[in-house]
Amino acid sequence: MFNSVQIRMANLIDFLGRLLISTLFLFSAYNKIFSIDGTMSWMEGFGIPGFLLYPTIALEIILPLFVIIGYQARVSAGLLAIFCIATAFLFHYDFVDQMQTIAFLKNLGLAGGFLFIVANGTKDWSVDREKKYVRL
Fold first, then answer.
1. What angle do CA 67, 117, 16 make, to 5 degrees?
2. How much is the pTM?
3. At what angle are helices 36-44 and 53-69 packed, to 10 degrees?
4. Residue range 61-81: average pLDDT?
5. How many Å apart are CA 99 and CA 92, to the nearest integer?
6. Which of 13, 41, 59, 101 could serve as a FRET partner for 124 with CA atoms 20 to 30 Å apart?
7. Does residue 127 belong to any structural domain of this protein?
């Protein structure tokens, strides 16, 4: 049986995990916003249409915020896992370049973390937490 300290600690760790795994995307979106032309050119160099940068920025802001606050966190985490896997295979598949290999594995690791959220959901510190009613 968990005591209240263990429950609060589990909630804190769950929240910190969601915050840490999501922060990367918020910084990435910020950098893309302030380097739109360069990012579009970089994407087009891989054969990806530059206009897809705009929905990418929206995705990198909205979904991580949903994961952090725990609103539709499983769905958002699932979409981010797919995004991470797609990004790994589209942009970081050059295994001759060690930095690209690391970026590839980082994306797969992030996808794994998001899949943990898909499988386990969030704890009590989330918008979608399950209400616990005591029957009298």
1. 60
2. 0.91
3. 110
4. 98
5. 9
6. 59
7. no
